[in-house]
Amino acid sequence: MSWRAFAPYLFPLVLAAMIVALAVLLWTRGYVSASNLDLQGRTLLTLGGMIRFENVVTAFPPLPYISAIGLGYVFPLSDTIDLAIASAVLAGLLVVAWFGAFRANGLSLLEAGAACAALALNPVFLRAATEGIGFMMIHWGLWLTALGTFSLRRGERVNDLMLVSVGLSLMAFAHPFGMLLVFASLPFLALVMPADRLRNAPIPMYLMLLFPMIFCLLSFMYVNWVFVGDGTAFIHTISREGAGLGADTAPSGNGSDVRNLLLSAVSLFAVSPVLFAFFVAARGMGPLRYAVLAVSATLLAGMFLSQTFGFFPSVSLAASLGVTAAAACVARWPISRLNRVELNLLSAGLIGGAVLLFVDNAHETERWRAAMLSRSVAESDPELTGLARALTGRERILFDAEAAPAVIALRNDATGVWSSGTQQFRLASLRNRTDADVLVVRNRASGLGSDRIGRIFPTLYDSGASGYRLAYDGARWRVYELSNEVQP
């Protein structure tokens, strides 16, 4: 690429660098998202050989997990800052992609740069950029899907079909919330299909759009069947902890479900008023109006499903997807119908995003806001932090670390931990006794149920074990350390 072709991209690259710098700044102020803590812990356990291979290849969602493992092989993950930077880089590259699409749509350098700045600096997008790899993959998937839907009904080009197909697949395997967004999109895909295809061959049209995702899903189910003996085994492992949602919206911690849903619906259009404005402005342009309606309805329905199944991330994170949807509107809108009023609404979304961050009382959002304001940042999960402190410096620890991988990240390494992939753990499971110096067990009444240690030693949490004394006592976790030679 010549300098003349590269020069216009300097501004979006500066915006991308600013996002990465923000991620580093927040990390120095003590903010690490629950998603990154969870993913860091799982990656450290995997790289240390402490998770069984079948558990690695059947883990859901696979994309962020595999990406983090690959990153760990190339660049040793010495701290959570590595994953924070990776997430910010994905966000920065998305901003660069926005700029390129705006220029391709006919916007001037000034207009494209201003639109990118208004979108990239929206506080809820910055919140998403520092959340984790998985959530930024949802943004990428939505961007590709929305680009395809805006052109699919008008031209049915192969490129548009591919954009929708790849985007849906990316969202589905990036995050449980993304999978729910894909399910939510199914009825609304009919809005963007060519009218004649919808009348004469709706099923083949759906198959064309969904084939890559269906193929990936069936392949993933086959892997589960080969290694676990059950093609749907991964469904039972999907959890808020596994999604890295952590303490973000614990039950009743962010208000009622109805309040969250209503606030999300309002905040989506407060953050991206462009969606409503473009729908109104699309008089006489049916395909574009249907596309805006399909994208907006998908996001709203996805929020409803995530509330129903308990995977709602937080109001600000859910609303951040409206920023990417707004970018797709600008990228695909006919330049002859695009005026300064619609572009100015992108700036109005900045105000909506800022207000939303102060309205959203999710724990993780409050932590992010405190870091942004240079205030003291609360712990993501005080009990897991206390558990990590109790295990720091210890060796010969029998611990089902897959049940709380954030502990490994908070501990900074997996050294000395006997997790499910180790021989010591398997022997303890077979013999119902162990020579570990430290036992870690989860309360079966905690709402998450027993971990593997609790199933091996059913009375351990309540009654302890002979020869061990209680070293850490939490509502969900207890730690027993060896006090003499007697074994359980």
List the main descriptive attributes of the protein structure presented here:
64% helix; 488 residues; single chain; 2 domains; mainly alpha; 25 helices
Short description:
This protein is mainly α. The chain is built from 25 helices and 5 strands. The longest helix has 27 residues.
Structural class: mainly alpha
Q: SSE string, helix = H, strand = E? A: HHHHHHHHHHHHHHHHHHHHHEHEHEHHEE
The largest β sheet comes out as: 5 strands, mixed
The whole-number mean of residue pLDDT values reads: 88
The amount of beta strand, in percent, is under 5%
Q: Give the N-to-C terminal Cα separation.
A: 67 Å
**Secondary structure: number of strands:** 5
* Total individual domains: 2
The unreliable regions are 247-255
> If you compute it from the alpha carbons, what radius of gyration comes out, rounded to the nearest whole angstrom?
24 Å
Helix content: 55-70%
Shape: globular
Number of helices: 25
Strand order, sheet with most strands: 2-1-3-5-4
What does this structure look like?
- The chain has helices at residues 3-6, 10-28, 34-47, 53-57, 62-74, 81-104, 109-120, 123-129, 133-155, 158-172, 176-185, 195-200, 202-228, 233-237, 257-271, 273-281, 286-309, 315-332, 340-359, 363-372, 382-391, 406-411, 423-431, 452-456, 460-463; strands spanning 397-398, 417-418, 438-442, 468-473, 477-482.
- The longest helix has 27 residues, at 202-228.
- The protein is 64% helix and 4% strand.
- The protein has 488 residues and is mainly α.
- It has a five-stranded mixed β-sheet.
- The model is unreliable at 247-255 (pLDDT under 50).
- Helix 6 packs parallel to helix 18 (315-332), helix 9 (133-155) runs parallel beside helix 18 (315-332) and helix 16 packs antiparallel against helix 17 (286-309).
- It has 25 helices and five strands.
- Strand 1, helix 22 (406-411) and strand 2 (417-418) form a beta-alpha-beta unit.
